[in-house]
């Protein structure tokens, strides 16, 4: 069965500052992951004739993919992180302090909550449909380098997890989730490349 490798980008400067959204570059730690991932992918796909690397259109995923050579790379806007609208670039603390009602509504119903001028998890799930169709169609392995909210939704689709769990699924940084779809169902393996 062909594998799908899911990973978040390497740690970004905004991750370090606790800022959501944005389009920052990688931190020093993120750059170490970038190199480890390239190494891992190279070994993992050594015997594959074809494969492709999918990223979002945001710098942090494109940079994370940059040292991987020998496979075509495709940028999908649909793989961009959840759009936090007016909260883009803020920390959770700042949202709690400056927009307490927004903070509370999100906490109450994280799946359906839509950031003002941004998106909800349900919006993200909907825009991922073409990506999922294309992933299902692939015969060769695909490495998907994306973001926390988007990968929660993608993972939930393949692991058959209920909708209401999606916003709470753990998708840590610097970890590769390998999904293999065979006749007997879906197999999953996690590779933690850094502490
Ligand atoms: O903090 C990293 C990040 O990818 C943000 O850009 C994004 O808003 C957030 O995670 C999504 O996670 P949650 O839905 O738990 O806020």
TrEMBL record:
This is 6-phosphofructo-2-kinase/fructose-2, 6-bisphosphatase. The chain holds residues 543 to 737 of 737 of the full protein.
């Amino acid at each position: 069965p062909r594998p799908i490798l899911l990973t978040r980008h390497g740690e970004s400067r905004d991750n370090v500052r606790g800022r959501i959204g944005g389009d920052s570059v990688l931190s020093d730690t993120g750059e170490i992951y970038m190199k480890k991932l390239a190494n891992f992918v190279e070994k993992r796909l050594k015997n594959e004739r074809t494969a492709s690397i999918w990223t979002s259109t945001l710098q942090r995923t494109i940079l994370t993919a940059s040292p991987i050579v020998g496979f075509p790379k495709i940028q999908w806007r649909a793989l961009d992180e959840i759009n936090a609208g007016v909260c883009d670039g803020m920390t959770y603390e700042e949202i709690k302090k400056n927009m307490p009602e927004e903070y509370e509504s999100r906490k109450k119903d994280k799946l359906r909550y839509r950031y003002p001028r941004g998106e909800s998890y349900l919006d993200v799930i909907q825009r991922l449909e073409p990506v999922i169709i294309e992933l299902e169609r692939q015969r060769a392995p695909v490495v998907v380098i994306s973001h926390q909210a988007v990968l929660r939704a993608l993972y939930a689709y393949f692991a058959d997890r209920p909708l209401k769990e999606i916003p709470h699924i753990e998708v840590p940084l610097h970890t590769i989730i390998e999904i293999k779809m065979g006749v007997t169902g879906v197999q999953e393996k996690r590779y933690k490349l850094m502490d």
